[in-house]
């Protein structure tokens, strides 16, 4: 396909920035018609929007009762036509015919609808275009003009570029009032049902915690330990039932520990003064800064261009791209969120059928590289810092960035290879892919040279990576390196007050600080040692062999993830396993890496936030959960094989002694 960059110079795209334009380019299919060719007839389904690259097109109404055709308009280069049927959903109301030989860019209705939802500025521009054309066509179409303009504008949520739905509703219905459902109606009945369910679950939780208290008293446990375990049990049930916000539940952990006098406030809330909390803050700011620029999109295009243009090569390319970008964009959820629109564009650029083996395989290779390889780098995901914070203090202090990487490689390498092979075997595709290097070149041309914001992001990212890698030399805590990167982004105007409020995941920071503080409280009260003594007799069958024990750790977190979200599951898993590691003569970092790897199961879609984000972000157009369930089940086996492969290397490195 020939790529003409003039396509995106059309006025209708003036509201899109360079990154959105680069992403938009592969959406179009170029078609050529000779003079006198009918592009579509009046009454045809409205399935495409056309933009004129060169040539002229006339639009007219078909003749009725022997009258001559009624010419409505003539369009030339940089004009578009065919949008009315796409916006209304009705059949074509006109016939379009070329006057001269034409080069047209065609955009499908499906992608057109997606673009209007993703780019509110574009929706408003099309509203203005349609209004002007309807006014120009004929006066009797004014009612239709007003109706369509309102329907499109309502979908354009105000973000600094347009009106909000609420504002437009008030403008159309200034005297409208909100009518609430009658108490005797169905809404009240549903509300009562939800209340009854909530009360029942609260009652079940209270009963379960009371019974647990009697059991723990019978075992002779200390009051502080009983209170902490009651808090954990109640939180686990709340997380499982999804009764309240998971962040609110997490904040209740240290608060409840203080109120029940199981620990002191200084210990319970120490997570918010821990250096790991500030490290997460700096890393989150770095992720927010990169998300605002086209840096990731540019890097992905460069990597894709340098791999073979076939299914195996591109599958490998996207998996490696994700792994390479992991330390650059230090948030697994952010990487997947940034990758999802690019994945949709890739599928359509390659003309992959919906939910075909190729589209599923490419999606799963992206999940592997951009999501599941996070544990390879210390800054690959926020939960890595949680594991670091839960290690014994002396070990956490002596864990520089490169040491974490060297310990993770023996586990990550076999996992990556086996996972990629599983993707290729489960989702084979032999047909050649339609990859056009000129398309990638055109997209890079649209992106242009590095912008000032991208340069600032590169500076901040480079500073943080160099600071992490040289920590053993300068002995400056990684948290302060990350905060300096935050300062670079803020001083460089990449981040401002608004983006700091919206771009940083403050909910997770609350959860992280609460979990870390509660973990410190568990260690300070001696609960972890008590649990270790309690569990050792029960785990004698797996504690006779170090390999069997580590495999049991993988199965343990795999089962925990069926009832707990990933952060509390890792908290419970790490705190209960660490004392046992010392008894087994295993460095706790080995168990921590296994917990991180095995916690990303997605047997149920909502178990894995990265997978669920990709599934939801693509509207299941590329794959559905039924197609990936076999790979999800195989994921657990791959984790176990990877543990077996890593053990000999860990023995040589002294992690197993």
Q: Could you explain how this protein is built, in words?
A:
Keywords: Membrane, Transmembrane, Transmembrane helix. The chain crosses the membrane at residues 199-217, 223-241, 248-271, 277-299, 311-330, 366-392, 404-427, 479-496, 503-522, 542-564, 631-650. The protein has 657 residues and is mainly α. The protein has a domain at 5-172: Jelly Rolls (Sandwich). It is 63% helix and 6% strand. The longest helix is centred in the N-terminal third of the chain and has 33 residues, at 186-218. The protein is elongated and about 100 Å long. Mean pLDDT is 80; it is low at 140-186.
Summarize the structure.
With 657 residues, this protein is mostly helical. The chain has a domain at 5-172: Jelly Rolls, CATH 2.60.120.
């Amino acid at each position: 396909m020939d790529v003409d960059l003039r396509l995106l110079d059309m006025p209708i795209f003036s509201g899109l920035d360079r990154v959105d334009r680069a992403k938009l380019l592969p959406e179009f299919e170029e078609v050529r018609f000779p003079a006198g060719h009918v592009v579509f007839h009046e009454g045809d389904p409205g399935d495409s929007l056309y933009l004129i690259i060169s040539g002229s097109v006339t639009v007219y109404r078909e003749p009725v009762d022997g009258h001559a055709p009624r010419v409505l308009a003539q369009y030339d280069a940089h004009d578009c036509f065919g949008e009315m049927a796409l916006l209304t959903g009705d059949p074509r109301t006109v016939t379009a015919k070329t006057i001269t030989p034409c080069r047209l860019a065609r955009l499908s209705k499906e992608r057109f609808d997606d673009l209007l939802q993703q780019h509110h500025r574009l929706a408003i521009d099309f509203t203005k275009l349609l209004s002007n054309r309807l006014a120009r066509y004929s006066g009797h179409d004014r009612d239709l003009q007003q109706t369509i303009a309102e329907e499109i504008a309502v979908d354009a949520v105000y973000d600094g570029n347009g009106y909000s739905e609420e504002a437009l509703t008030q403008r159309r219905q200034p005297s409208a009032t909100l009518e609430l459902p009658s108490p005797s109606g169905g809404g009240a009945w549903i509300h009562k049902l939800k209340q009854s369910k909530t009360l029942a679950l609260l009652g079940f939780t209270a009963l379960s915690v009371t019974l647990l208290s009697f059991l723990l008293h019978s075992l002779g446990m200390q009051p502080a330990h009983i209170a902490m375990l009651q808090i954990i049990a109640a939180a686990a049930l709340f997380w499982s039932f999804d009764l309240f916000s998971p962040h609110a539940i997490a904040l209740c952990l240290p608060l409840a520990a203080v109120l029940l006098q199981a620990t002191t406030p200084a210990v319970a809330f120490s997570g918010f003064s821990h250096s790991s909390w500030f490290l997460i803050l700096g890393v989150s700011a770095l992720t927010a800064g990169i998300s605002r620029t086209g840096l990731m999109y540019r890097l992905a295009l460069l990597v894709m261009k340098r791999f073979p243009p076939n299914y195996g090569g591109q599958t490998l390319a996207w998996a490696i791209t994700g792994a390479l970008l992991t330390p650059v964009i230090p948030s697994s959820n952010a990487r997947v969120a940034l990758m999802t629109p690019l994945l949709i564009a890739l599928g359509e650029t390659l003309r992959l059928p919906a939910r075909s083996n190729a589209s599923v395989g490419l999606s799963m290779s992206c999940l592997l590289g951009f999501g599941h390889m996070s544990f390879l780098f210390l800054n690959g995901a926020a939960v890595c810092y949680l594991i670091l914070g839960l290690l014994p203090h002396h070990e956490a202090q002596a864990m520089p960035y490169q040491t974490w990487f060297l310990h993770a490689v023996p586990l990550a390498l076999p996992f990556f290879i086996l996972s990629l092979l599983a993707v290729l075997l489960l989702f084979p595709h032999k047909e050649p892919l339609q990859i056009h290097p000129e398309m990638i070149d055109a997209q890079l041309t649209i992106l242009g040279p590095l912008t000032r914001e991208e340069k600032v992001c590169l500076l901040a990212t480079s500073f943080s990576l160099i600071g992490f890698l040289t920590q053993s030399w300068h002995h400056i805590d990684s948290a302060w390196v990350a905060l300096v990167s935050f300062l670079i982004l803020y001083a460089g105007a990449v981040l401002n007050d608004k983006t700091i409020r919206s771009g940083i995941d403050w909910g997770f920071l609350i959860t992280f600080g609460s979990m870390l503080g509660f973990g410190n409280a568990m260690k300070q009260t001696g609960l972890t040692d008590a649990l270790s003594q309690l569990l050792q007799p029960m785990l004698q069958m797996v504690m006779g062999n170090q390999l069997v024990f580590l495999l049991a750790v993988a199965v343990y977190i795999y089962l925990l993830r069926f009832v707990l979200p990933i952060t509390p599951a890792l908290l419970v898993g790490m705190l209960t396993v660490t004392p046992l590691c010392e008894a087994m003569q295993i460095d706790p970092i080995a168990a921590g890496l296994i917990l991180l790897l095995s916690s990303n199961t997605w047997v149920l879609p909502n178990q894995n936030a990265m997978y669920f984000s990709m599934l939801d972000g693509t509207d299941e157009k590329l794959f559905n959960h039924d197609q990936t369930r076999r790979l999800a089940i195989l994921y657990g086996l791959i984790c176990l094989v990877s543990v077996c492969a890593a053990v000999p290397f860990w023995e040589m490195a002294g992690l197993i002694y």
